[in-house]
Write a structure and sequence with these properties.
The protein is α/β, with parallel strands linked by helices. The protein has 16 helices and 21 strands. Helix 4 packs antiparallel against helix 7. Bound molecules: NADP nicotinamide-adenine-dinucleotide phosphate (NAP).
Amino acid sequence: MTFHAKFSGYADPALHAAGLYIGGKWQSGSGITVLDPSTGNLLAEVADASIEDAQRAVDAAHAAAAGWRATPARQRSEILRRWYQLMTQHAEELATLIALENGKALVDARGEVAYAAEFFRWYAEEATRIPGEFRRTPSGSHNILVDHEPIGIAVLITPWNFPAAMATRKIGPALAAGCTVILKPASETPLTAYAMARLGEEAGVPPGVVNVLTTSNPGGITNAMLADSRVRKLSFTGSTGVGRVLLAEAAKSVVSCSMELGGNAPFIVFDDADLEAALDGAMIAKMRNAGEACTAANRFYVQAGIHDAFVAGLTARMMSLKIGPGYDPETQCGPMITQNAVRKIDRLVSEALAAGARATTGGKPLMENGYFYPPTVLENVPVNASIAREEIFGPVAPVYKFESDDEAIRLANNTEYGLAAYIYSRDLNRAMKVGKRIETGMLGINRGLMSDPAAPFGGVKQSGLGREGGVAGILEFMEPKYYAVDY
Ligand code: NAP
């Protein structure tokens, strides 16, 4: 394993891990380079798993499965609780790791660690409350007894934009349910996942219950694992495009799938909104992680009477943000994850400008070594521009003017996605009525942030299948078993 010298100055060496974690053993290796997105320089190199390594991980998860399933819920709960405590104790090192490999501002990275750890605490609690059911049939013929059993070995695939939270949001409920798992983190941000695995070991997670592998061949190793009849669950968070490919692959062995996919969140501001509150919410919904969030506001629909004041206020706030490397404590807007991400944002913005939009701030990539794009506000954007259809995944706020509630609803629903939406209005009755007609899995009313480990997170339409977090999250890793009982 290799770590760039700069890296050791920032993070606790005890958390440096770069080898595959299979069956409780660390296997060193190399082949996947991790870059600092604020400079493009090499940060570290981690192991590159082969198909054989993936098969060994399934073997290890299988060997641990019976023991973990039989472990009393209280004991599983206490291990998760210890893992939560260790993440909290190591919060600053983990946040630094995230800021280094992902590029997000430290303030966002600290928020992510707290959010991520909370999934372990929440599922430590849920582990001891797995629901069951007992009823008599309506005809009176017999009794219905429903138990929930762990679904079996779960493959967990996570993206780079929340390297800690997307992993704990899956590992927490899976372990609470009694499943063993194989986690494949994104290649851009593997260090956080390995660091968390070290803490899991310290928390007492038995060998084989959690396995972690990084690979340059995600399709090959995932397909091999899905073809193994011992694997019964795929929980994926990432783009809708890759989600579709994985659903087709999982269909071959009828593996149960939970899919947390892309978003295209509308942010609707009505004339009667509290302008300052709407601007505060807009900054959170747009600029958390510099716009690299699936729930990020992607389209701002602002009613005609408040439109100009909203654009002026948003422009002033976006212009005031300090851009820099995530690990610089002053930074408010870090770099994008890759050069390709900057190219995609540039394409969407250039096309919108060519179609008649106007940038009130930003609008061009920054000519730096790292992958920086400045906070940007666009007004007068045509409603059919590609920036209204595709995920921007960057610090760009396109604003569209609307007149009536019906028009706002029609525009908001004009997308294949349905993950998150936001409404700002002082009239809660109006907000709820409009909210009912928005096709979305999650809705923030007078709030720019909705994520909470105790709430069901997920989307409708092509934003996904199933829910993570909350009471629903644990059931994604369980199968109901019905006993027809007569006595
Ligand atoms: P991505 O390209 O779909 O990658 C996600 C994960 O899938 C990575 O670990 C990637 O591995 C892996 N992968 C890629 N191709 C694969 C294949 N053929 N088989 C198996 N695994 C494969 O997404 P991303 O760019 O990392 O993340 C951004 C996307 O995630 C956005 O669309 C965002 O909206 C979505 N997201 C959704 C949620 C949600 O909860 N709904 C949360 C966060 C992000 P490599 O890194 O090795 O390519």
